[in-house]
Design goal:
The chain has 151 residues and is mainly beta. The protein is built from one helix and 13 strands. The protein has one domain: Jelly Rolls (Sandwich).
């Protein structure tokens, strides 16, 4: 499937769902989900994916572009981890654990990645960081450069 029907995403950038498993699973909390979902996700130069989290593991895969910086934070007093996905780094995928805050920005003009979520993604499992929240204030106090991924 070609990434030619991308639509605006709440976190920033554009996406297109390309796979949703017909296989269903039941999470530990009793909620049913597709076993796996996969999207294409694109960011242009100057765009960011704002800090958000989902309730499942998410695998980011680099497809096109110079690369992507992925920012991962567990929400504690720890520092934000910066991951580089690029040919130069030799890293083309990264797994963000369920419940971790994540944000991203392209290294060059444009980047196309794939994001697989299992159990499958549903918008009701998606949380965008609230700029007025204590967690956002704490993150900005810890690292002011993260502000661009919150507002």
């Amino acid at each position: 499937m070609k990434p030619n029907n991308l639509i605006e995403h709440t976190e920033g950038g554009r996406f297109q769902e390309v796979f949703r498993s017909v296989e269903r699973i039941t999470r530990a909390d009793g909620v049913g989900r597709s076993a796996l979902t996969h999207i294409y996700f694109s960011l242009n130069k100057g765009e960011v994916s704002r800090f958000h989290k989902v309730q499942a593991d998410e695998v980011w895969n680099l497809y096109q572009g110079t690369g992507l910086y992925l920012y991962i934070w567990d929400g504690s007093e720890s520092v934000v981890e910066k991951i580089e996905l690029s040919a130069a780094s030799g890293a083309f995928c990264y797994v963000v654990p369920a419940g971790y805050w994540q944000a991203a920005q392209p290294m060059g003009k444009k980047v196309l990645v794939g994001c697989s979520v299992g159990p499958g993604f549903e918008f009701e499992d998606f949380e965008l960081i609230d700029p007025a929240s204590a967690i956002a204030e704490g993150l900005q106090a810890k690292d002011p450069s993260m502000t661009k991924f919150i507002v």
